[in-house]
Amino acid sequence: MSPFIEPFASIWWFVLGTVIGSFLNVCIYRLPRDLSIVSPGSACPACGTPVKWYQNIPVLSWIMLRGKCAHCGTGISLRYPFVELFSGVIVLVTWLYFGPSLGFAIAAPFALAMLVLFFTDYDLKLLPDAITLTGFVTGMAVAWWNPFLEGQGLERIWWALVGACLGSGFLWATGAIYGRLRGVEAMGMGDVKMMALVGAFTGWQGVLFTIFGASVVGAVVGVALVPLRGRSMQDTLPFGCFLAPAAVVAMLYARDLIAWYLRMVLPPTI
Ligand SMILES: [Zn+2]
User: Fold this and answer.
1) How far is the CA of 112 from the centre of ligand 1 (A)?
2) How far is the CA of 238 from the centre of ligand 1 (A)?
């Protein structure tokens, strides 16, 4: 990248990321509640006063308002500037990692979608279809150009489909078996649809890594939280909160890691 362009390109992507993050805050609140993400404009949830454009600048407005509504003084959650900042970091880091490429064009939106799913699952234990199913369809539509899938062209569409079926099938089967044993519905259909999205973008390697990684981290965190919060295992974080970050790591590293692992365990062919 030319030194005349570079610092400005990074700043541009970071700032654009925080603006996208501001919109993702709206999505996180409204999508699981079946509200429109276009209208009405943002308003204070306490007094209903519409947010003016200069009070809607990512991160900065929250700092200038010192975390309070300008009209009624009700506190504004630290969540909002955090999501804006984190979205900026996601876009910046993927830009620095991939540069102007298909990798950037696919990894950045994928990670942002995972950010939304993390928080909707955390807040309401819901993974909205507007993200999971739309994401799955998008993943299939862009599979041809997706460098995180194996092979080229048609092969990639095949591997996206395999990943989606494997991911959703695995979670659906686990949920069905677990439900039979315990008489409860352990895995919501939201997780099943989420793994179709993850599989369409990351293939079978991404799916295996995501489910394995999320299960291990989920078990460790679950056990760690029991004495801290005095809750049972079932009351800890929903599974989507572990699937989402694992899927981002999987997109970047699962293929290399699994290929390396297979070379370790399989004897070399003579
Ligand atoms: Zn207010």
Assistant:
1) 28
2) 31
Contacts of 213 (CB under 8 A, 6+ apart): 242, 246, 249, 250
Q: Which of 185, 189, 171, 172 is nearest to 133 (CA)?
A: 189
Beta strands, E only, the chain:
none
SS3 state of residue 43: strand
- Ligand 1 centroid – CA 34 distance (Å): 23
Predicted TM-score of the model (pTM): 0.91
Residue written as token pair 């079926």: 165
Ligand 1 centre to CA of 78 (Å) is 15
DSSP H or E stretch at residue 162: helix 154-182
Ligand 1 centroid from CA 142, angstroms: 42
Cβ atoms of 168 and 196 within 8 Å: the answer is: yes
Q: What is the domain partition of the chain in residue ranges?
A: 1-99, 101-270
**65-102 pLDDT, tens digit each:** 999 998 999 998 999 999 999 999 999 999 999 999 99
CA 48 / ligand 1 centre spacing (Å): 6
Distance 52 CA to ligand 1 centre (A): 12
Q: Which of 138, 141, 236, 243 is nearest to 190 (CA)?
A: 243
On whether the CB atoms of residues 172 and 188 are closer than 8 A, the answer is no
